[in-house]
């Protein structure tokens, strides 16, 4: 089955700097790759996603890149703000496997003012 | 608020007791997923429904766990004879199978503590 690895497990940046989180996946059939942000005591919130027919997607300060050949994808946050501090999860799924998401282990991002 | 709703938010129980959680998905969503999340880990898939049919169960879902979605709307997750290892956050998510989209939207979860 699918296995998703995420790095780093913790990341500390200064406000205004960029943050990059990387994930690798194992199943070449995976074709959908979302990123979630989880704040303490809350459920994961979808922040951006990308499909396997696209190499890059951007939404304001957030961007995701996908390299299908290498089976890795990354989240880029620019001009970080203290409210970006949270745990971020990557995930992968295959539409023909019911759409269930397999998650990475999470990255705790801390943005210092 | 038309998001995914989970009740209760917190549940404390003694080992050996039965507990039941409820999930109300986004109304137009026909798929409903249950996940379990322990501290410092990503959510782990347990099971999912398409309408009222339970289509897949993870090996994590032991015989003590049962999930239902009787009318294809809300779902319940029951844990019988709880063990301390069942302590976790139980998350529910829903999605629509329309088009190529499989965006999963999560509720706030039920935090279970087994004493």
Describe this structure in words.
- The complex is a heterodimer of chains A (113) and B (115).
- Chain A contains no helices and 11 strands.
- Chain A is an all-beta fold and 113 residues long.
- In chain A, strand 4 and strand 5 (45-51) form a beta hairpin.
- Chain B has 115 residues and is mostly beta strands.
- Chain B contains no helices and 11 strands.
- Chain B has strands at residues 5-7, 10-13, 19-24, 31-37, 44-50, 53-57, 65-68, 75-79, 88-95, 105-106, 110-114.
- In chain B, the strands form 2 sheets. In chain B, strands 2, 4, 5, 6, 9, 10 and 11 form a 7-stranded mixed β-sheet that branches. In chain B, strands 1-3-8-7 form a 4-stranded antiparallel β-sheet, with no helix packed on it.
- At the A-B interface, strand 4, strand 5 and strand 10 of A face strand 5, strand 9 and strand 10 of B.
Mean pLDDT of chain A: 94
Number of strands of chain B: 11
Largest sheet of chain A: 6 strands, mixed
Global outline of chain A = globular
The secondary structure category of chain B is mainly beta
Question: What is the element layout, followed by pairings?
Answer:
The complex is a heterodimer of chains A (113) and B (115).
Chain A: E1 4-7, E2 10-14, E3 19-25, E4 32-38, E5 45-51, E6 56-59, E7 62-67, E8 72-77, E9 86-92, E10 102-103, E11 107-112
Parallel strand pairs in A: 2-11
Antiparallel strand pairs in A: 1-3, 3-8, 4-5, 4-9, 6-7, 7-8, 9-10, 9-11
Chain B: E1 5-7, E2 10-13, E3 19-24, E4 31-37, E5 44-50, E6 53-57, E7 65-68, E8 75-79, E9 88-95, E10 105-106, E11 110-114
